[in-house]
């Protein structure tokens, strides 16, 4: 979607909404953390290339990302611990540190 010109802040908004809606589809597909994986990829691309977001919006978007990542970490910590949950938690903690350096 980003490749076809959908702004990164809008993509995060949509994926965040999808994740928070807790659609049972992802559990039925045996991929309950798929949306978090997608969000992680999306935000990692932003950290690697912040110029995807206009300079005047970058600080606000970075703050939005940090808030979202904190929420995802809380969600992950409330899940039963598995290797997958631990891996995704580690990925988001690493992403959080990178976002803080952008700040």
UniProtKB/TrEMBL annotation:
Occurrences of domain Nucleoporin Nup133/Nup155-like C-terminal (ranges): 2-79
One CC-aspect GO term: nuclear pore inner ring
Keywords assigned: mRNA transport, Nuclear pore complex, Nucleus, Protein transport, Translocation, Transport
One GO MF term: structural constituent of nuclear pore
UniProt keyword Protein transport, yes or no: yes
Pfam families: Nucleoporin_C
Protein's cellular compartments: Nucleus, Nuclear pore complex
Entry keyword Cytoplasm: no
First-listed, main subcellular location of the protein, grouped into a coarse class: nucleus
BP-aspect Gene Ontology terms: protein import into nucleus; protein localization to nuclear inner membrane; RNA export from nucleus; transcription-dependent tethering of RNA polymerase II gene DNA at nuclear periphery
Family annotation (InterPro entries): Nucleoporin_Nup133/Nup155_C, Nucleoporin_Nup155
Protein name stated in the entry: Nucleoporin Nup133/Nup155-like C-terminal domain-containing protein
Source species: Monodon monoceros
Lineage of origin: Eukaryota, Metazoa, Chordata, Craniata, Vertebrata
């Amino acid at each position: 979607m980003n490749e076809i010109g959908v702004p990164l802040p809008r993509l995060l908004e949509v994926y965040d909404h999808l994740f928070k809606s807790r659609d049972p589809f992802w559990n039925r597909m045996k991929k309950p953390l798929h949306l978090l994986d997608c969000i992680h990829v999306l935000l990692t691309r932003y950290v690697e290339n912040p110029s995807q977001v206009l300079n005047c919006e970058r600080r606000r978007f970075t703050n939005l990302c940090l808030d979202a990542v904190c929420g995802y970490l809380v969600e992950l910590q409330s899940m039963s611990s598995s290797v997958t949950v631990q891996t995704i938690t580690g990925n988001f903690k690493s992403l959080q540190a990178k976002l803080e350096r952008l700040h």
